[in-house]
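Subject: mismatched residue count in predicted assembly?

I count 723 residues in my input, but I want to confirm that the predicted structure covers every chain. Input:
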Amino acid sequence: MKTLIANGKIPLAQHYNEDRSIMWTAKDKLLLGLSLSEYLAQAFRNPLNWLFAVIFTFGGYVTITRFVFGLGYVTHSSYDYPWGLFLGFGLFVMVPLSASGFMLGTTVEVFGRDDFKPIERLALLNGLLGYLFAVVFLQVDLGQPWRLIYPMFVSLGPAAVLFLVAWHVATYLSVQVAELVPAFAEMMGMPKLKTFIKSMILGLTIAGIILSTLHQGALGALFTYAPGKVHPLWYSAPFQWFHFFVSSVFAGLSMLIVVSTICKKTMAWRCDRNFLDNLDKLTLGLAKGATLALITYLVIKIIAIAHDGDWGYLASGWGQWYLLEMGAGVILPMILFTISIRNNLPGLARFAAFIAVLGIALNRLNTALFTFNWKMYQEIPHWREVMICITVYSLYIVTYRFVLYRLPILYTWKKDEEAAS
Amino acid sequence: MKAMNRRKFLKGSLLGGVAASVVSKSKNADASASFGGYPDAMGVLVDLTRCVGCRSCEAACNKEQGLPAPAQPFDDLSVLDHKRRTSEGAYTVVNQYEITGQDHPLFRKIQCNHCNEPACLTSCFVNAYTKTPEGAVIYDATVCVGCRTCMVACPFYIPAYSYSSVLNPIIKKCIFCYDTRLKFGRPPACVEACPREVLTFGKRKDLIKIGNNRIANHSDLYEDHIYGENEVGGTSWMYLSSAPFEEVGFDTHLGTQPILSYVKEFLTVVPMVLTIWPALFAGFHLLATRKDKPKNEEKSKI
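Triage response: the counts match. Full output below for your records.
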């Protein structure tokens, strides 16, 4: 794409071409204003696409075998570890990292912080795609995925925590789609649709906060069903939902910093000045929010240990693992964030965000897999299970990139009048 | 005027009636908060001191439930050399435990304990599980989505899953022979097959009395505890042992609360968030954007 721009191509960002003689068709918008051969040529030039091609060829095959030969073929079919990587990584890690949507929605729409607008849509998209692919992971893992709607319409178990997760994730997905409709409407030239969504944006955002609070918390509460199985340091009946909720706050914000950094580094051509010029300032703003959530999380984690009387476990091997998770995944990014804010160092904040993302991933995997059944043996996932996870995650990245290239997420769609002048 | 008064009176009494019914309802709710199981629930008392590990119960279960033939025949006792758990092919298994200080090993039969307040049932989001008044915890495979939360929730590691099935993988566990026997008041197949009277079938409350009598009459033989009387809110299957229960593979740290009680703390948060958040955040919005308003009005004037 860079070479094309150097050759005078301008990435498509308005309905008409420069001298207003041609109105771009949907096909032009889809191909970024390039001809098909130009588009394919630039796709083939990108080495990352070749890597994806290898992953999809091999991983796609493995993924198909899961649906042809059953879960038993791609996992170790463990009765003791009913949840493996598909949920441990796909659901429990993806969902907190996607909390950015409701965080930034709240900041901009509820608290009226319009200075965060340049990054709001990226946050919403990060949320939407994260949830969407968490559901894809879930569909890979469910024994009978075609029965996904059973808890909604066929046989209801409303007293179960998972019932709440199912309903809230489904509703929240639709809320997030609605929140991103304006971007789509701008691109496709449907101003009425945009006005309609804008008229109910406050309601949508508050619905997003409620649903997020509850299902982020509910994912934690799912583990309260297993008091003897999850290690006491990662388990706390009264605080589990709060741990998961508060950690999703900094997880979402840190993920947003990471994603915006990747966008800036790899697709600067698609970002406009509004995004690029504000990014450093916004990164530090997000870092402030993340730091507050980190310290809240740290305090409530300590309170949980005190409340449950788990101090003794800290001296054990599991305790050291716990201290490592808290030290490297929570305290370290908290200190780095603070230094970066005080000294105005967005680069350091990006590094801290990266560590915080890894830290939260470790926390969720610890709860769901590593410390689960801590009195028993450790389950090591089957290589096919790992392969499918890599494949689905690659699909997530490709979809993410596809949308970012096209919808006005990182750039502002030029209104016709502006384009004309 | 009179009519008005009458009307007011009627209204008042109606409200009072509603209030009274709400109060009385909440009293019922208090009673159900400590649900101790159905009064006439059946159960089985397993006496570990009598078991010789012949695996007759395993064979009977296999036949009754139409399970696939095992890799090793049921009279092959070498399977006792390693610890097994319930699986999609075996709803009950017998394990052998060497006890320090005793010259012979103890054998323990494992199957679903049919809890009074089953964790699997409370964790199921399609309501596939039912605790029947007869005491069995049964499962409706036709609505199961295959999320396997019940397997995570079960404190006894009982439910298994037929992972190998592509089109209809389901949960596999002991159902107390509900469809073929318990429903008609007959004991499950394993109880009938036992040659040593290890398994006593009867009303749960009677079994507790029997268990306590055995402990009282042979206090030198038995541990002074019926495992399952109170564990996780009480179970229909209960155990007597001559060795400390943790030495025969029982988890003695489960506590007496049903698993649901650990989840309730979160469930009570749900209605609060649902009702308080909208007003709270709408309020935040009004407060946060209060200063912008005059500006906007000025703008519109210009």
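Chain A touches chain B through 60 residues (CB under 8 Å). Marking this ticket as 'not a bug'.
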